[in-house]
Design goal:
The structure holds 2 protein chains of 2 kinds.
Chain A lengths: L6 H6 L7 E4 L3 E5 L9 E5 L11 H21 L4 E8 L12 E6 L16 H24 L32
Antiparallel strand pairs in A: 1-2, 2-3, 3-5, 4-5
Chain B lengths: L7 H12 L3 H11 L1 H7 L6 E4 L3 E5 L9 E5 L11 H22 L4 E7 L12 E5 L17 H18 L65 H7 L3
Antiparallel strand pairs in B: 1-2, 2-3, 3-5, 4-5
Classes of the chains: A alpha+beta, B alpha+beta.
Chain lengths: 179, 244
């Protein structure tokens, strides 16, 4: 995807206005324009990357260190009682923009938000198979971390814009990992 | 957690004992009681899918979907802000690896990565955990993040409060000093018909206390840890750090 088409890249390049709360050469944090709660912050890499698996080890570390620090700041500054850190990674996870973002969502009791999922039960066979499959795939993690040459899986990050207002000025296209 | 099973006299004796313990002893006691520390040590069974010297990943026994992984640090940290920067970096790099493993293993088109700090955020256990949850198209999980409208005045107040505290604590780059208008006109989703998430209830500002010496540098990769932080009164988190 071309950077010109990415709304968040335009924010990073100061072509589109946003309320910035932190910035350094790798990372930008802004207030979410349509927040889930008071102080909902988006933390993003300045580099245009779509999904979690595409981030380098260094960028991942920086993003989460900043998020962690911001979570304490937001907690103090806005008198909140807790924070959620959520990444919606990929279309099936309702990823909103084709640019990787971490959601830092401050919480209060009875704020009307509820991320609690309904737990499901699976039988022993299913769980056993899941365990084996994951173990096998997870073996590759050690190599990835050491070499930082992860071959990210290609997943669909096509994002349909939800509101379709006239002011939206970016095209969404199917994203493929660049070799 | 075990406290409810004791008689009132036993409870009182326990409270006395706890009061007289050193922080070290208290921490050890918490670790002994912690289900996840027991999973790490092997005392309690779990389906382990990954481990290294810093973290362990197991299948969640109350999963949102099949393949839901819990990633936890070996060290008994209760909330993420307690963790030092280098461990944060490692934890989330492994989360990244596990997310990739989940995508490949179950051929799904998405994962949700979820952390809860504090009871108000839905934290259930007193041990840091990162959830990595396989997502399926249209599964309508509770994990999807709602969007609300918020008016410009409230945004301004929030922005200012954050910047005031941040300048003291984290240091800001010069570009950030001017507060800019939000892009509400460009990105208003049509479905956001709900009332704003209670910005009216934001309290009048108290003087924010800087946690460490004001610094002008951006966060360094290996910044010194906040061991000098004053203990804070966190309403929602007291439930986790105090009692059993």
């Amino acid at each position: 995807m071309a950077k010109e088409d990415c709304l968040l890249c335009s924010v990073i390049d100061n072509k589109v206005a946003a309320r910035k709360v932190y910035e350094d050469k790798d990372v930008l944090a802004i207030l979410h324009p349509t927040p889930a709660s008071v102080g909902h912050i988006l933390v993003m890499p300045k580099e245009h990357l779509a999904i979690f698996e595409q981030l380098t080890e260094f960028t991942t570390g920086r993003l989460f260190q900043v998020t962690n620090k911001l979570s304490s700041v937001v907690f103090e500054a806005l008198q909140m009682e807790g924070t959620n850190i959520i990444i919606s990674n990929g279309t099936a996870a309702e990823q909103k923009w084709p640019h990787f973002t971490i959601n830092l969502i401050p919480r209060r009791s009875q704020d009307g938000l509820n991320f609690a999922w309904s737990p499901r039960q699976f039988n022993e066979d299913d769980m056993g198979t899941a365990e084996l499959k994951l173990k096998a795939e997870a073996k590759k993690i050690t190599e990835e971390v050491l070499e930082d040459q992860a071959e990210p899986p290609v997943i669909d990050t096509k994002v349909e814009h939800l509101s379709g207002t006239e002011e939206d000025n970016y095209q969404i296209r199917q994203l493929r990992r660049m070799p | 957690m075990e406290l409810q099973n004791l008689t009132p006299e036993e409870q009182k004796a326990m409270q006395e004992k706890l009061k007289n313990m050193s922080p070290e002893e208290l921490r050890n006691l918490q670790k002994q009681q912690c289900l996840f520390c027991q999973i790490i040590s092997g005392k309690v069974n779990a389906r382990r899918v990954y481990d290294d010297d810093k973290v362990v990943a197991v299948l969640d026994i109350n999963p949102a979907s099949l393949g839901h992984v819990l990633l936890i640090p070996r060290e008994h940290y209760q909330i993420l802000p307690q963790m030092p920067d280098d461990e944060i970096a490692h934890l989330f790099n492994i989360a990244k690896g596990i997310s990739g493993a989940v995508l490949r293993a179950f051929q799904v088109q998405g994962t949700t990565i979820f952390v809860a700090n504090g009871v108000a955020a839905g934290q259930k256990a007193t041990h840091v955990m990162v959830h990595i949850i396989p997502r399926h198209e249209g599964d309508k999980a509770a994990l999807d993040i709602p969007e609300y409208q918020i008016n410009e005045e409230n945004m301004k107040v929030i922005h200012k409060r954050l910047l005031d505290l941040m300048t003291a604590d984290l240091g800001m780059m010069p570009e950030n000093e001017a507060s800019q208008a939000g892009p509400e006109s460009e990105t208003q989703p049509a479905e956001a018909a709900e009332t704003p998430a209670a910005p009216e209830s934001v309290q009048p500002p108290k003087t924010p206390e800087p946690e460490q010496q004001p610094t002008a540098q951006p966060i360094a990769k290996s910044a010194p840890q906040s061991q000098t932080q004053k203990p804070r009164n966190r309403k929602g988190l007291d439930d986790l750090t105090g009692g059993f």
